[in-house]
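Hey all, quick one. A colleague (J.T.) asked me to put the nickel (II) ion job into the tracker so the inputs and the structure tokens live in one place instead of scattered across chat threads. No bug as far as I know, just bookkeeping. Sequence used:
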Amino acid sequence: MSTKITWYGHAVIGLDVDGWKLIVDPYFTGNPAASTTADKVQADYILISHGHGDHVGDALAIAERTGAEVISNAEIADWFESKGAKKTHAQHIGGGHQYPFGYLKLTNAVHGSALPDGSNGGNPAGFLLTVPDGKKIYLAGDTGLFGDMRLIGEEGIDLAMIPIGDNYTMGPADALRAVKLLQPKHVIPIHYNTFDLLKQDAAAWARQVEAANGSKVHLLKPGESFTLE
Ligand code: NI
Ligand code: MN
């Protein structure tokens, strides 16, 4: 068994877990880094980390077309329901739920979460997913560095996907400190090079991380995949 992870650019992540298709923060329309378009994506589940437009993105259209269930915090799940999403599942920070694709827990993230129309999007979250073979995948969401990443690391992280773009989230220096707290086996940086404002030298960052820590960094181009096995 393996889990295939695809980065579509910015913070858009596709996961294929035993044939279950998940899409996280599906921002395709208006995303200059997107490697595909919202009408081509397959999804059984859509995960939304927080309410910002570059994360909610095309979720409603994808949910409508595919029938996918939208999973997020209670405020955002309710908002999707009010906008016509047929299937939603509300969780909240610290709470986990067993889905066919694994056990999904919402984690802290230090950020904002207002929805595109100004509605209250609750608190921003990250995701800790334990897939059926026991592997643990941490998707940090948009966040600054926080010390309790150490607690998440205590769970034994196989893959961490963390922002390095700076300005709105951790930049490279804090993302390196995050890796030291999380101690993941594999790391994939995201939320960078979408716009000029988020330009980063990911190759230089990867060398720093690998020199400082045992984690293996995988630099994906939008549309490329990594298989966790
Ligand atoms: Ni954000
Ligand atoms: Mn963002």
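Adding what we noticed when we looked at it: The helical segments are 53-56, 59-66, 74-82, 149-153, 172-182, 202-212. The chain has a mean pLDDT of 97.
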